[in-house]
Structure formats: structure tokens, C-alpha cells
Amino acid sequence: MKQPSEHKKKETKSDVDSHKLAPRIQNRRAHFDYFILDKIECGIALVGSEVKSVRKGHVQLAQAFARIRNGEVWLFGCHVDEYVESNQFNHDPTRTRKLLLHKREIRRLQQRLQKEQSATLVPLEIYFKRGYVKLLLGIGKGKKAFDKRAAIKERDDKRNMDKALRRG
Questions:
Q1: Under CATH, what is the fold of the domain 20-143?
Q2: pLDDT tens for residues 13-40?
Q3: Which of 13, 39, 96, 98 is the most exposed place for a label (fewest CB within 10 A)?
């Protein structure tokens, strides 16, 4: 007889191939503009045509941010392109979307935002997990201009060192 720890979930074809079909859309601008203090994974409420657009990678997160209103977390400024193959009942590309979190997670986010001065909720990445669209949300604190310059200098120095090491 098998012990409970020996039971493993069988991987279905959809679990194995889902990472190949759907892209991971990253907000590369977020790491440049913010110090990311903490990250949390949450679901996102989408309509069918939005899911298809996300699966094709037609999402822009650069200007997006999240806010807590009336005990719920909402995503603003995220542009999900209209699905081309859809009919006239297509979605609004710039509508606000509800983020799906437990109440205790929302309370923890609120406490963290109140504790940190000038912190904001920044979407870092959208990806698929077991067929569901997930959003990686970060608590970010804005960088000043000199912080950004230092990050650019550090990145360039790292790139130059890597080039020198490759040359021999």
C-alpha cells in the first residue's frame, strides 16, 4: 500500500505544454523605475477574448499599477489588445480589472503599503499557471534619478566584465 507522500499528481499534456504555448509577459520597466520590496502572486479576472489576447502576448504592462479600493485590489492602466478573431462583442482594452486575492493577503498588502512611505503596487509579470492567468504583483518604492543612473552604470559595468571574461 502506498503512503500518502508517495502519491503524485499525474502531469497531463496540458500541464506540460502550457508553458510552451503561452508567453510570460514581463514589465521590464518596473525593475528600472522601482525598488521591488515584496512580491505576491494573484489571479486576474478576465473575459474570454482577453484571455486569448494574453495567450498571444498582446499585453502592455508598462503604465499599469494596482490600487486597493473597498477591500478589493484593482489593476489600472493595463492594455490588453482586442482579440482580432472576435466579433463585435469584444472587450474594452483599457478597462480596470479585478485582481483575485484572499482577504488576509489584501490586509497584509494594505499594512505594508501604509508602513512604507511612497510605496505602490506594480504588476511585474503576467503568466499562465495550470491554465489560469496569474499576475505577479510587486510592492515597489520609486527610484530617484540618481538611483536609475547608478543602476545603468552597474548594468554597463557587468556587461563589460562579461565581455572581457568571454574574450579571455
A1: Small Protein B; Chain: A; (2.40.280)
A2: 555 454 566 688 888 888 878 888 889 9
A3: 13
